[in-house]
Design a protein that fits this description.
It is built from two helices and four strands. It has helices spanning 14-22, 48-59; strands at residues 2-9, 27-32, 39-44, 64-71. Strands 2-3-1-4 form a four-stranded antiparallel beta sheet, covered by helices on one side. Strand 2 (27-32) and strand 3 form a beta hairpin. 19% of the residues are buried.
């Protein structure tokens, strides 16, 4: 499973926050971005319980004002919409 954690950080803390998040187990990447969010972290684990624990750990970072988590999923291709 994979979760994208969209993070709004306190002003001026995004770079340091991304570096801190990269050190947390199961955080596969943490990148600063432009736009509505300041950092996007990718959390991966075969277990939802682990992802939940890691997201809770991320939310405890004092530089974080808000998070939104999006879980990715796999849809098996059933052939719908494929060219003939």
């Amino acid at each position: 499973m994979k979760a994208y954690v969209l993070i709004t950080a306190k002003r001026g803390t995004a770079n340091g926050l991304a570096e801190t998040l990269k050190k947390i187990k199961n955080v596969k990447s943490a990148e600063c971005v432009f736009g509505r969010y300041d950092v996007i972290a990718i959390v991966e684990s075969p277990e939802m319980k682990t992802i939940s624990r890691v997201v809770q750990q991320l939310q405890k970072q004092e530089q974080i004002l808000h998070t939104e988590t999006a879980f990715s999923y796999y849809v098996e291709d059933k052939g719908y919409g494929t060219p003939e």
